[in-house]
Amino acid sequence: MSDVLTVHGGTPLRGEVQVRGAKNLVSKAMVASLLGESVSRLRGVPEIADVRIVSGLLELHGVDVSGGPDDGELVLDPTNVERAHVADIDAHAGSSRIPILFCGPLLHRLGEAFIPDLGGCRIGERPINYHMDVLRQFGAEVEKRPEGLRIHAPKRLQGTKIALPFPSVGATEQVLLTAVRAEGLTELRNAATEPEILDLIAVLQKMGAIISVDIDRVVRIEGVDRLEGFNHRAIPDRIEAASWASAAFATRGEIFVEGASQPDMMTFLNVFRKIGGAFEVDDRGIRFWRDADPKRAVVLETDVHPGFMTDWQQPLVVALTQTSGLSIVHETVYENRLGFTRALNDMGATIQLYRECLGGLPCRFGQRNFLHSAVVSGPTKLHGAEIEVPDLRGGFSYLIAALAAEGDSRVHGIELIYRGYERFLDKLDAVGANYERG
Ligand code: EPZ
Q1: Among 263-277, 337-351, 353-367, 421-435, where is mean pLDDT lowest?
Q2: For a tag site, which of 82, 147, 346, 422 has the least CB within 10 Å?
Q3: Do 418 and 277 lie in a common domain?
Q4: What is the extent of the structural domain holding 201?
């Protein structure tokens, strides 16, 4: 049964919340611990479902995981890595896409890996062809079985030259986690260079890896024979920080996000300022509110780093419903990440979706029948509605819309939001949100 939140909208959110380590780094650093011969320590770990899922998968493979989100530190001991039963992996994988990143480390440690059907947010087709191509290039063999994919390494994996068709975050991580212990040099072209990836590279370097990153998206990795554990504090979660910023804007409130880091949020902050958002950066974090000046619409295109993150798009679209004029949003990373706007229209927003690439360069989805551009006309008064959480970021965006709306909304399926927003109900309390469970 899905969890429901009844939100009484119309109250400006005011107060302070804290963001901890980035979900999209923490889960990958946890996987990296499998590559070490000694204990790893990861700090700034948030209390989210993805951390529980990855902990479960690591434990199945013999990693001893202790500590936890209460003190924000995980201790990961990979001394006794072992094979796991296929059915157990399947049961633990949950709705996460992380199991695919276990391949490289498990191939090095055990010579084989098993990947169940992957979950994750339904924001596009999300194929894994880049991952499988990459693993084959290192010399792994991929075998399709009814219960999933079995990948095995007949001999030590070999460094190789790889050029990704698109700078995929996950495929770049796949290469990194595999190349660090492969034999010889790996050169990766068209790599993703998101801050979370650079932080993963920092983790791997601490473990003993040799990795260089050029400004032209070329990453070179010299394989080594042995890696040790790491001691690392995760970079802060810039998606969660931007989500709270959008909530402050949409509800005409003011939220101080402790831990928010300006350098990783530059592109978001520029857009936030353009639409009439205001912010103040200090040593502890960033304060977000909405300027009194007339608000302006924007033309926005999501892109890989250093572009505007696709994960910022959904919360920002809710903020755009409250700006004056026509904003254009071109989603170029996921073909189906604007579907969540239908419910916003049911709440009174005026958002029109288009198949064409609007407002920028043509993208991969241009001629392919995907509604991946939006025109948001604002400001519109939102009213309460019955809504179902579609995916992680869409879910938090619906909460923002419900909090900004007049009247009551019932938001169904809020358990999905725990995948990436830790203690979000406590944080809603801290900023004075008016809601109740059920
Ligand atoms: C990561 O997903 C994040 N997830 C996503 O965050 C994020 O939206 C995305 O990167 C982009 O920044 C995690 O880190 C766990 P991709 P990932 O490979 O690695 C296509 C959130 O809300 N593609 O960069 O799966 C793919 O379909 C989540 O926190 C292929 O075609 O994303 C997409 O169009 C959602 N074949 C594009 O590349 C492949 O084999 C980018 O995906 C792999 C990807």
Answers
A1: 353-367
A2: 82
A3: yes
A4: 23-233
Q: How many CB atoms lie within 10 A of CB 88?
A: 16
Are residues 208 and 284 part of one domain? no
| pTM (whole model) above 0.70 | yes
Q: Which amino acid is at 164?
A: L
Report angle CA 199, 66, 40 to the nearest 5 degrees.
35
Instruction: State the Cα–Cα distance between residues 355 and 353, nearest whole angstrom.
Output: 7
Q: What average pLDDT does range 102-119 have in this prediction?
A: 89
At 124, the pLDDT band (50, 70, 90 cuts) reads low
Residues 203 and 59 in one domain: yes
Residue at which a domain ends, from 197, 212, 233: 233
Among 101, 123, 166, 169, residue to substitute to test ligand 1 (most atoms within 8 Å of Cβ): 169
Where is average pLDDT lowest: 116-120, 180-184, 242-246, 350-354? 116-120
Return phi, psi of residue 33, to 5°.
Answer: -60, -25
User: Residue-wise over 415-435: b if at least 16 C-beta within 10 A, else e?
Assistant: ebbbbbbbbbeebbebbebeb
Q: Is 121 noted as a catalytic residue in this protein?
A: yes
Check pocket membership of 169 for ligand 1, CB cut-off 6 A.
yes
Amino acid, single-letter form, for residue 423: R
